[in-house]
């Protein structure tokens, strides 16, 4: 069903074009980011479970336009390409406790993911539209080194060594295709309101979402060319998103390998989920630092609300 929605989204929300209308150089940048529930500002109370951490490294390089995979990454009609990126991503998920060597039923499964992402961003400034498209390829399960990553971090931060990873989601293929279409609703000098829609389809995530975000402060217009700015930027942003989930392999196990010891049953998945995001960005010349928190309602029946923080650094060159 969600694959059909994906097709409709592509055909109705924008039309495709092979025509190149770029007049602005493609973005060149390098970025690193880390996410962890311990980075959360404890507005709702700090959590230490579920999405326990993620590490990200990304390069945006004009040469990636020539990558054959870029041909299946969609762009806006009459839009300019802004960037072509490649990233390495490692995410880990745990139940509410990592101190037990017995299976915790009715809790989130242990799960690790490791994947390579290829993305393309195009923008139509006149229509205030931005399209981000990404193809992810990797693995879910022990081959993603979720246990080894958490063990390494905990052993170097004076935290308890994790137990229970022997019950993690089994190895399987990570293959996902995602689209994000953003539309400016109100664009002023110090205030912007932007609506967006997301669609994910593949072996790991099948979902769709609608959201709204606002930005305020000293900032370059959102739909301007993605590049570094010579002036100091400092702004706040916040957003809310409603998501409908069809399938989540980090909860339910891989699409092809059904040998996982423990998964969340399909009927126990919460189909409707709400997310809230709030953050701050500081940018000057070639450096950008961003920090934000995400709050999410329970993803499965009997689950808990959850929050995590993100800290990222990007350097344009």
Describe this structure in words.
The protein is mainly β. It has 3 helices and 12 strands, in the order αβββββαββββαβββ. The protein has a 12-stranded antiparallel barrel. The chain is globular.
Task: Give the key terms.
mainly beta, globular, disordered N terminus, 12-stranded antiparallel barrel, 317 residues, 3 helices
**Considering DSSP H and I runs of 4 or more, what fraction of the residues is helical?**
under 10%
Order of helices and strands: HEEEEEHEEEEHEEE
Multimeric state: single chain
Count of alpha/pi helices: 3
Major sheet: arrangement of strands = 1-2-3-4-5-6-7-8-9-10-11-12
In one word, what is the shape?
globular
Contiguous uncertain segments of 5+ residues: 1-23
**What percentage of amino acids are in beta strands?**
over 45%
**Spatial separation of the terminal alpha carbons:** 42 Å
Spatial extent as radius of gyration: 20 Å
State the total count of DSSP E strands: 12
Query: What's the overall average pLDDT, rounded?
Result: 90
Alpha-beta classification: mainly beta
The major pleated sheet works out as: 12 strands, antiparallel, barrel
């Amino acid at each position: 069903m969600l694959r059909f929605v994906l097709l409709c989204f592509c055909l109705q929300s924008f039309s495709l074009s092979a025509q190149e209308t770029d007049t602005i150089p493609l973005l060149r940048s390098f970025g690193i980011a880390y996410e962890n529930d311990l980075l959360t500002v404890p507005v709702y109370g700090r959590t230490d479970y579920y999405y326990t951490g993620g590490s990200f490294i990304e390069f945006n390089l004009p040469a990636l336009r020539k990558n054959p995979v870029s041909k299946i990454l969609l762009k806006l009609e009459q839009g300019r390409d802004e960037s072509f990126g490649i990233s390495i991503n490692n995410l880990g998920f745990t139940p509410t406790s990592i101190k037990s060597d017995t299976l915790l039923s009715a809790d989130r499964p242990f799960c690790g993911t490791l994947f390579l992402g290829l993305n393309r961003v195009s923008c139509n400034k006149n229509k205030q539209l931005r399209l981000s498209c990404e193809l992810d390829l990797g693995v879910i399960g022990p081959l993603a080194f979720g246990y080894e990553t958490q063990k390494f971090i905990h052993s170097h931060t004076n935290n308890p060594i994790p137990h229970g990873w022997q019950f993690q989601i089994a190895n399987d293929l990570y293959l996902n295709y995602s689209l994000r279409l953003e539309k400016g609703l109100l664009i002023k000098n110090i205030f912007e309101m932007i609506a967006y829609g997301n669609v994910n389809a593949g072996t790991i995530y099948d979902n769709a979402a609608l959201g709204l975000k606002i930005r305020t402060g000293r900032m370059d217009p959102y739909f301007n060319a993605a590049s570094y700015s010579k002036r100091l930027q400092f702004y706040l942003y916040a957003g809310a998103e409603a998501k409908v989930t069809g399938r989540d392999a980090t909860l339910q196990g891989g699409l092809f390998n059904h040998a996982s010891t423990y998964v969340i049953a399909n009927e126990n998945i919460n189909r409707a989920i709400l997310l809230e995001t709030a953050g701050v960005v500081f940018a000057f010349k070639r450096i950008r630092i961003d920090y934000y928190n995400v709050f999410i309602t329970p993803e499965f029946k009997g689950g808990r609300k959850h929050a995590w923080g993100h800290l990222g650094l990007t350097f344009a060159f």
